[in-house]
Each structure stands twice: as C-alpha cells, then as structure tokens.
Design a protein that fits this description.
Radius of gyration: 17 Å
Number of strands: 6
Largest sheet: 6 strands, parallel
Distance between the termini: 12 Å
Oligomer: single chain
Strand content: 5-15%
Order of helices and strands: EHEHEHEHHHHHEHEHH
Structural class: alpha/beta
Helix content: 25-40%
C-alpha cells in the first residue's frame, strides 16, 4: 500500500484527521499520523528548553528513519509543514508527492502581523490558554464542547503545555535568528524539489499566511503546472472541509501513480 504521512500543527494532534484518515484507508493507502513531541499523546518534555525548531526537525527525521518510510505522500498542516519542509529540502528522495497547508520556511524578514504577535503572547502567558478554544477560533464550523474537550484532554499538568505554549514563538522573526538562517539555506534546496507539490489554503484573510502559498507555488519546481487550492475555510481546514480535503488528497496522491 502506498504511504500517506499526515502531520498536524499547533495546538492539536492526530485527532484533527479523524474525519480524513478512514477515507484514505478505504482507498488502500497506508496512513501514518504521529503526534508531534509535546502534543496529543506523545511524550510531554518536562524541560521546555529542549522544545526547539531544530530538535523537532531531528525528532521527525528520526521518526521517518525508524519507520523506514520512503515514497512518502505527505500532507502537512501548519507546524507539521514548517518542520517537514526542512526534511523535504534535505531528503527529497524520501518523498513521492507533497501537499502543504499554512506552512512555510520563515527566514526572519517577513512581516509578522500584530494578530500573530498577540497569539504568541496568549500562548506564552495566558492562564486560560486552551487548545480546544484555539481550535474553535480557527474554524468557521462551531466545534462542539465534546470535541474541544478532546483537544484539551492530553494536557493535565502545567509542564504538559510546554510545547503548545512555546510553538508560536518558535517561528523566527529576525534574520539573525539561527533557525531563520537554517530556513534560508533550506529554502534554496526546497526550490529544487521537482516532484509534485501542491498548496491547500483557506480563504480566511489571515495576514500571517496570506500569499505564502503563492510564494511556494512560484519558488518550488514541482509546484509548477499543478492545481493548487483555496478552500472556503478558516485556518483548520481539516475541521472546516474534511471531505473536500480528503477528495483533493485522494485525487492528487492517486494521479499517475505507477
């Protein structure tokens, strides 16, 4: 069975794919959905200092190596993409086709809107921080309390929140930031990725993400002559448009597969 790797972002987990993965399995794909370290039911590091962009890249690399994944069909959203785009840049041969949503390798010279800075501060400092509420704010569909509770459930004690609270601030916002320099170098390699690459964005006018899909489409060789998508959706397209997203992924991953 061809492999699909689904990667989630901030502040959720593999649970976000509950309405998508079963339909991919029905199409005879082998579907793999890890929870990033510090998220969902993966280990929650007690030491917040080890939660870095580079460490997350290393951990995901190790995951792919340990499972000996090759010929990966990837769909990555948000931080799942910001981490995996680095791996695609370094190890393009491991990937068959790539679809990303709200993902980008920030080089530290981008305009970071006030709305996102507000979110960074909320995540870092607000006592009422709730992953379930963030999921609800980022979807057009009103999430039932039962679903919000599942998003909140992996976090029991204060240290469980280290990763979800820290992730928004890990996006580099200065060109001198070491992670920004790494991204700048990797963007040069990512541009050369020649296998099929598509972007799937929502039509919400989030300034942090507006136009980033266009830049990927222009820069990446494999994104040329592909159909790219903008769904009638907020940030969490897996919640707003699960069926549409599933159909796009099935069509994309099955197209001309040998």
């Amino acid at each position: 069975h061809p492999t699909i790797l689904l990667l989630h972002g901030e502040p959720n987990s593999s649970f976000i794919y509950r309405n998508i993965a079963p339909n991919l399995v029905k199409q005879n794909f082998r579907v793999i959905i890890p929870d990033l370290v510090g998220f969902g039911y993966s280990d929650k590091p007690k030491n917040a200092a080890i939660i870095t962009y580079s460490n997350h890249t290393k951990w995901l690399n190790n995951f792919i190596d340990t499972l000996k994944l090759t010929n990966i069909n990837l769909f990555a959203h948000d931080w799942g993409g910001m981490i995996s785009l680095r791996i695609i840049a370094e190890k393009p041969k491991f990937f068959n086709k790539v679809a990303v949503s709200y993902s980008y390798l920030f080089e530290g010279n981008e305009e970071i809107p006030k709305s996102f800075i507000g979110f960074v501060n909320y995540a870092k400092n607000d006592a009422t921080f709730s992953p379930g509420n963030i999921m609800d704010w980022g979807t057009n569909t009103k999430l039932p309390d039962t679903i919000k509770a599942v998003y909140d459930s992996p976090f029991k004690i204060e240290s469980d929140y280290h990763a979800v609270r820290k992730f928004p601030s890990l996006i580099p916002d200065k060109i001198s930031d070491l992670e920004a320099i790494i991204n700048k170098n990797l963007n040069k390699k990512l541009k050369l990725f020649s296998k099929p690459f598509i972007t799937i964005w929502g039509n919400n006018q989030d300034l942090m993400w507006k136009g980033k899909d266009s830049i990927l489409q222009q820069n990446i060789v494999g994104a040329k002559n592909q159909i790219h998508y903008i769904l009638d959706s907020n940030h969490f397209i897996q919640e707003d448009k699960p069926e549409e997203l599933t159909n796009i992924l099935i069509a994309f991953f099955k197209k001309n597969t040998k």
